Every structure is written in structure tokens, then in C-alpha cells.
Amino acid sequence: MLDVSNQEIKAKKQIAIEASQISTIFEDSKGRIWIATESGFGYLDQDEVFRKMEDAGFDSSIVCFHEDYQGNIWAASTHYGVMKLANSPFMNLFEKAGLEKEYVNAVQIYNHDYYCATDDGLVILDGVSHRQITDELTDLTQGSRIRALFTDSKERLWLCTYNGLVCYDQNGQILQFN
């Protein structure tokens, strides 16, 4: 980081970004500093930590950034063309909860929490904090492929697994049908 004052430039702080060659730097309206290197690009967050953009499709030859009137960031590459980075109303709840990437086959809101059917069992995420919840039902289904979830008129949650059908009610009672 540089400090420019009294027509002098002074080094203020050095931040490691694991790259040997920087091709361009850009500051957006949110104060993020975008940095393009020979091996990809990313930005400095509020804590001045470099966040590399993974799986962006651009991994080299970025020559400039631009921000449009909607706050979208545009990156231009001499090898890959132009890419638009836009904010999304969607969030990855597994990422927010600190969980590994997982294929989710179905989602059901039950008791104000998110019940996620995966190939490796049931994952429950708190509806407010998005933290993972474990209970008797998640323990029971661990390692089982769950393909569908359904809440019936009696407020029971049904899980369709490759090992059979599971019914879970509001009182925590579990019934299994094989």
C-alpha cells in the first residue's frame, strides 16, 4: 500500500498476494482494490487480505478493470475477452456455514430451518444463523443418499433415501420404512 501526501509517495504497508507480476490495479466504488496478475486476479478485502477469484474462467492476461453504473466489475483479457462480475441475490449457504461443497438433491424448510438432502445424508442449516445443526435425524441418515424431502399436512417431514423412507415429526419421533 502506498501513501501519497505532500507530493511524495511513501510505502505504507506491503501485502503478499502470491504473484510475481502485476498487470493492473483498480479501486472500485466499495473501496476494494482489484489486482490482476500473470496467474489470475482478485481483490483486497476490508482486512487487506487478498481474495483470489477462483473458477472465474480468466487466469491470465487481464489488462484492465472497469466498474459500470450498477456496480458490476468488468475485466478485459487479451486472451479471453471480457468478463462481467455481478452481485447475486443468491448465497451459498454451505460455504457460509463452512461446509465442504456437496451435491444437494432437494431442500425443504422445516421448523424455520433448511433441510438439505445430499448424497451423503441430511444436512440441517439454522434458518437464521445458517450454522449447521446435528441431531438424531442427521446421525441416522449419515452416509445415505437422500433424493427427496416432503412436508405433509400433519407437519411431518418425509425423507426418501436409497435405504428406504423416513418420517420425522415435530416431537422428534422417527419412523423408518424399508
Task: Write a concise keyword list for the protein shown above.
mainly beta, four-stranded antiparallel beta sheet, 17 strands, 6% helix, 47% strand
Write a structural description.
The protein is mainly beta and 178 residues long. Helix content is 6%, strand content 47%. The protein contains two helices and 17 strands. The chain has helices at residues 93-96, 136-141; strands at residues 2-5, 8-11, 22-27, 33-37, 40-44, 50-52, 62-67, 73-77, 81-85, 104-110, 113-118, 121-125, 132-133, 146-151, 157-161, 164-168, 174-177. A four-stranded antiparallel β-sheet has the order 3-4-5-6, with no helix packed on it. Strands 10-11-12-13 form a four-stranded antiparallel β-sheet. Strands 14-15-16-17 form a four-stranded antiparallel β-sheet, with no helix packed on it. A hairpin with a 5-residue loop joins strand 16 and strand 17. The longest helix is centred in the last third of the chain and has 6 residues, at 136-141. The protein is elongated. The termini are far apart.
- The average pLDDT score comes to 88
Elements, N to C (H/E): EEEEEEEEEHEEEEHEEEE
Describe the oligomeric state of these chains in a short phrase. Answer: single chain
Indicate the low-confidence ranges by residue numbers: none
Strand order of the largest sheet: 3-4-5-6
Rg on CA atoms, Å: 23 Å
Secondary-structure-based class equals: mainly beta
End-to-end distance: 63 Å
Q: Which word captures the global form?
A: elongated
**DSSP summary, beta strand count:** 17
Q: What about the largest sheet?
A: 4 strands, antiparallel
- What percentage of the residues does DSSP assign to strands (E)? over 45%
